[in-house]
Amino acid sequence: MDLSEIAKKLGLSESKNLIRKAAELRRLCDVQFDSSIIGVGEVCKAIICLEIAATRFQVIFDRQAAIRLSGMSEKAYNRSFNSLQNSLGVKTKLDIRELGIQFGCVRLIPFVRNGLSLYKERFLASLPASRRATADFTRPVFTAVAFYLCAKKHKLKIDKLKLIEVCGTSESEFKCVSTSMKDLCHDVFGISKEKKDPRVVKCNRDLLDALPEKRKFENGGYLSDDGAEHSSYKKRKRMDKVAYEEWKSSVISSNDKNKAKGYFENYRLHSKQDEDEKNLVSKTTVVKGVLLQQSIQAVVAILLFTVTANDSEADIDQQPSLIVLARQFVTAMLVLDTWQYFMHRYMHHNKFLYRHIHSQHHRLVVPYAFGALYNHPLEGLLLDTIGGALSFLLSGMSPRASIFFFSFATIKTVDDHCGLWLPGNLFHVFFQNNTAYHDVHHQLYGSKYNFSQPFFVMWDRILGTYMPYSLEKKEGGGFEARLAKEYKDN
Ligand SMILES: [Zn+2]
Ligand SMILES: [Zn+2]
What we know:
two-stranded antiparallel sheet, iron ion binding, nucleus, ORC6_met/pln, DNA replication, binds zinc ion
């Protein structure tokens, strides 16, 4: 909307100077900051600029009409008015009477006036003659502090933050001036009994040092009487900006997270929620358990190798052919599978062993990769270490080949527990015994099926513990292994 049009609606079209001033203020707003940050729309901004200009030219301004025109509540308009005025730095004088009316304590007015003039007098008296002429007390902060201290002395409650906002200063400046006033004019503003002799108290000259000329430059040279970077408006603007930046980065990072999460979410066999709810053990405990388990096995393996390391040098140099290697690998796989199947099945069959040893592994109803080797140390020893030693010895593989074999078996076991059905996973292509297959065993209904691990499913098939399942896509993303036949409860 055009400024002159708004001015016409407010009955201000007579004064061309006023409109010109308002236009100048509006341009200044546009240059200095984005007024939409403080919630001041274009029309409201124009109206407020007109009001400021009207005050400057001492033209009567119909505030109620202006509020109606702005379409805002009175409170919102006042807030916008103060914000804009403070940020433009056009507030040069704070009228004591106006403050008294606004804060509902008109009877304080004479006290504030007296207190202020006394303060000025004493302040000037403490200054060297050369500086007295340039001392400037027109800054609103002085009036506001005097007003606040008087109210306090007369036991009237005043909203300090609102006062700081109205006078367009900062809390720190307010506090400085307040201390200075209390020190110099204890008889007027002080509350406590002990009185300070004003002659002994040094006035705070810094208050004046930070005054007009200096601040004008810092603030772009425009009527910067409220100066200081710390004006409440600027502080709020800065806080708004920080809040906005935080919000922005949180949105971006959660977006990124969702993208990353979304990818795996589409291939999970169980939801994250299931993982948290169904598992009977915390991840920290799992990590500790796995580390303990691995240390024990490492010690046992070192001892085992030390005892059996009597191979002659010649053996090490001889490279077995690929066929021999393949045969050794398959033999080792079959041996390990056989040992593990019977031991595993027996652990489920024998209630004592299950309760005290194997149940630890089944605390993970929804398994995850690093929980693959979360076992009772004794189970690690019985199933993995002895099984490993047997497959090593019976296959006749070299220690070097065994490194590859055991690494392969471990990676396979980790994959079986990873809980993800990722596309292109070669284990899922070559092995029927895979993530979904072993996942069935980890479910409460699956504890009588799919004992085979880690490579083949033959023993389950031969001995009738094979549970067929179909992998179906879930609605919310991910897969679900649906059992293809009734399971037995007992
Ligand atoms: Zn089991
Ligand atoms: Zn398992």
